[in-house]
Design goal:
Blueprint: H1 7-16, H2 18-26, H3 29-37, H4 52-60, H5 71-80, H6 86-115, E1 126-128, E2 134-136, E3 139-141, H7 159-174, H8 187-239, H9 243-260, H10 264-268, H11 273-289, H12 299-308, E4 310-314, E5 319-321, E6 329-335, E7 338-342, E8 351-355, E9 360-361, H13 363-368, E10 374-378, E11 382-388, H14 389-398, H15 400-413, E12 421-422, H16 435-446, E13 457-458, H17 469-473, E14 477-478, E15 480-481, E16 521-523, E17 529-531, H18 551-562, H19 595-600, H20 606-634, H21 637-645, H22 660-666, H23 670-678, H24 693-699, H25 704-712, H26 721-734, H27 737-745, H28 760-767, H29 770-778, H30 793-799, H31 803-812
Parallel strand pairs: 12-15
Antiparallel strand pairs: 1-2, 2-3, 4-11, 5-10, 6-9, 6-11, 7-8, 7-10, 13-14, 16-17
Protein name: Potassium nkt2-like protein
Membrane topology: Multi-pass membrane protein
GO molecular function: voltage-gated potassium channel activity
Length: about 800
Amino acid sequence: MRYVVSRRRIAARYLRCLFWVDLLSVMPYGPICNAAFGGCGSGSGPTGELTPCAITCRMLVFFHLLRIHRLLTLFTSPKYNTEAPFAVATLFRNYVVTVLWTHFAGCMMYFLAKVYGFGSEAWGRASPGPDGRCLIDGEPVDVTTWLGGPCDPAVGPTFGERYMVSLYWAIVTMTTVGYGDKTPATAAEIAFTVLYILVNIGMGAYIIGTITLVAVGNDETLRAYREKSSRLLEYIEVHGIPPQMSSCMLAHLRLNFVNEQASDEQVLQILPLTLRRKVLHYLYMGRLTSSYLFSGCCSTFLDRILQAAGFELYMPQVQLVTHGSPVTELMMLIQGDMHCSVTRLSSASPKEYSVEEGELFGEIPFFMETVSTETITTVSVCRVMVLSRAAWRSILDAHPGGAKAMLENLVASTFRVIPRASCNVGRGSSQAPGPAANEEVQRRATDPEAEPEASVGLCLPTGSHMPDAEAVAEAPLVSSYASCPHPCTLQDAVLEPEHPSPRRRNTGTPTRRDRAPVRSTSLSPDGSPSLRSLSPLGPHLPESPRPTLSSRHSSLLRGHARRGPSSLRLSTLRISQSSSLNSSPRTTNRYQPSPTVLSWCTAGEQQETRARLKAYLDRHNDNVTQKLIECCRRGDSTALINMISEGIDLEVADYNGQRVLHAAVGAGQLEIVRILLLAGVEVNKSGLGVGTPLMLACKMGADMAMINLLMKHGAALGLTGQEAGDVLCAAVYDGDRSFLSRLLNCGIDAAARGADSRTALHVAAAVGSLTSAHLLVAAGCSPALRDVWGRTPLDDASDSNQVALIDFFLELE
């Protein structure tokens, strides 16, 4: 199948098909017949019946009915118009078809009656007989037509009355009522009636089928729900589940059943991948970019997370994370309210925190693959983004740079723990603080110099310089307290609108936009926090861009890449997904650590948590380094460019001290070396035991294209005077003339002295290597140089009886 977009071809197809249909439907047949037959088109006989010429002209007018094919467009448009309900569109279409068909049948019966003149010749002289037959002047006669005949006192001789009788007969016959009060009398009327009834069989079946489809659609949905509910009830009865738990299970079933057809997975699966990515980007990217954990991550990495993540609904009072249980999913609150309860052995009572929309929870035990120290419970109906561990590992393999940025943000968050509202959530009631208490909470949350009160977290100073790890460890302890709302029961569950209304509950908890701005940090190589590409809220500290390649480098790398509810009511339990999800959450300070970080960074455990996270980060960095080096060895330019675009550090070395550029040079990957050099890799860094990349290229026998490329970017051998002499002497002694030639082409000093001040020319004379002597002399090594004993290369050649070399040196003198 091919789509035709050429106007010329579309016009040609119209001329071959529908043009003739439209032409026949608009021809003025009445004037044509009057002009052709001298006005017989509207004539009638002496008794009122139509003449044969008039009948022929009237039959031609039926071609105007061909315009009905334009109604197909009218019927198709409501069917695919989602603004009109499906039931309304179906009823509208059926009624229009019924009215048109019965109108046509009525007009046809009227026409047949007119052909026979309606029996007007006996009008006024007819009367019904005792046996039901029509009497004219007392004599029984056969009726020529049933419509408006002389023996039908119920129908007058006017056009309107006769048309209404015809339409009445058509509707009664189509609906199969069949009173029998009006029956066809002539052979033509009987024949048309037979054809009309046969068509009505199909028309009736079509109308009944469409109405049944509308009614059965809702019944199927209800039946599916009842089947799932009955299976769940049977399961509850078999296993003896208590009533409180069973009612919760049924509520979850209803919530998920009502909303599963509107879920992202169900709706977006019919869309192409690119469009699905755009929709998810529009809906949820604002949440990800507002989180501290995803700061500095590229958009490709975040898009991959959105595609791999799922979005689930949870009823109130559901524990998503339980104290002491392993966390196998990374979760973010999209909509709803939650609270976090942290229980410590050193604390007499648990600490309670509210989880705000757009916040992550359970991230530390998720990455460290350990048990949780907090309990996260839903307060209202919540929509949560869930990323499984299997999906995370696949993303980790495909985007190591983005994963590294996430882990660095997580480790850095342990250095910038700031005050957070604590909530005393009771089972039955809670008392909200008064205005004075709220003002005190606001003051302590926004004033960095407020007097410390209790130990909840660490607050970094907001000066112009970020302190080191020791300074952070000695930072003052600050906290603030507020009360949380009551835990919502199932009857009170409501999902708050994205933009709070004036009637929204005031819990007295300061939002993060009211708290002091804190600089975001990342880890420097020594483990201390350093400024990352984040900035606090406010214009006084601009956001510093991440290091990027130059335009020339970027263009080259791109070339390589091309090649190679607003509310929820329990009557319906339906949550609406508005486009405001892509906006920033209610609290927009993305530099505030999550409740999980706060629970893991309490007094006495912050250093341990940081050390465990750093160990996990180091393992990840080692894996990334190995993957990067292996990518350079095998010459995978596409994977290398993807890693460079994610900001992977190209100056790293593996456990053997081998660097990325050394791996590419050692494997002879010229294209990889070119990409690395254009990406700004340091060309003269030495590897452990292999020297500089240029020295490694000479040792590994690289071709001159590789050596010239390195030298073009300023590469050097990195050898001192005696080191250069020892290398030259060893090359001559081993007879490796190609290695010697590459060293000399790289600009090594041919007269460099090794041990005992001997040059490579001395060694060539002693071992009798005439070719090496020619190369050294041509490179500028003088045969008159003497070692510590005062011997020249000629003396060594004479002692070794090397006649050819003796002659060569004598010629040079």
